[in-house]
Amino acid sequence: MTDLAEPAHLVAPRRRDAAATRAAILEAAKRAFAVTGYDRTSLRDIAALAGSDVALIPRYFGGKEGLFTEALKATIAPDRLRDWDRRRFSRDVAEMMAGAADIADPRTRTFQFLLQAATSPTTAPLLGRAVQERFLAPIRDWLGDEAGQERARVLAAIYIGFLVERLIRGAALEGVERTAFVDRVTAVLEGVIDPQA
């Protein structure tokens, strides 16, 4: 009878894919923080969701707060607005807001994550900094004038308000109600984006 096992010195050590593991942990953290919030999410929950060892979280992220901060940065993509056509922005957003909030849509999960972060005393200051750097600053730059900061804040507040309304409403608007909603939301957004029009 022969031994089919390779001698230990001939077997190549199994390589860890650190980047894939880190990405899996980060994605799991975004999902967990969106559903249960910072305070009710444990590192063990995140590791289990990622299919990794909980000891890797401090190695890659320094701990729960570091992981949350990285998840927050990954959630708010500052470059989305850059490529949006200003002529279509108001109508596109209005039509999106008239639709249903799809829980599987990454944008809906992003918003849920941000809502959870806003309600925790631990994470609200982190969210405030991230929103300033990764949301308001790109909007201000996109608007492109001295009053951009104030208009960026107003545009962000309107956008967030419509996201909340859509999430609460659940179903898409239809018929005359949808048409009126889209027209009015378009006008409101245009008034912020191009106040001279």
Molecular structure report:
This protein has 197 residues and is mainly alpha-helical. The protein folds into two domains: 13-75, Arc Repressor Mutant, subunit A; 86-193, no CATH class. The protein is 67% helix and 0% strand. α1 packs across α4 (64-75). The chain starts with 17 loop residues before the first helix and ends with a helix.
Secondary-structure map with pairings?
Blueprint: H1 18-36, H2 43-50, H3 56-61, H4 64-75, H5 86-98, H6 106-118, H7 124-143, H8 148-169, H9 175-193
Helix pairs in contact: 1-2, 1-4, 1-6, 5-9, 7-8
Descriptive labels:
197 residues, mainly alpha, 2 domains, 67% helix, 0% strand
Cα shape: globular
- Helix/strand/pairing category: mainly alpha
> What fraction, in percent, of the residue positions are helical?
55-70%
The total strand number stands at 0
How many helical stretches?
9
| Most strands sheet | none
Please report which band the strand proportion falls in: under 5%, 5-15%, 15-25%, 25-35%, 35-45% or over 45%. Answer: under 5%
Count of structural domains = 2
- Beginning-to-end CA distance, first to last residue: 88 Å
- Uncertain parts: 1-6
Please provide the ordered H/E string of secondary-structure elements.
HHHHHHHHH
Radius of gyration: 22 Å
Average per-residue pLDDT, rounded, comes to 83
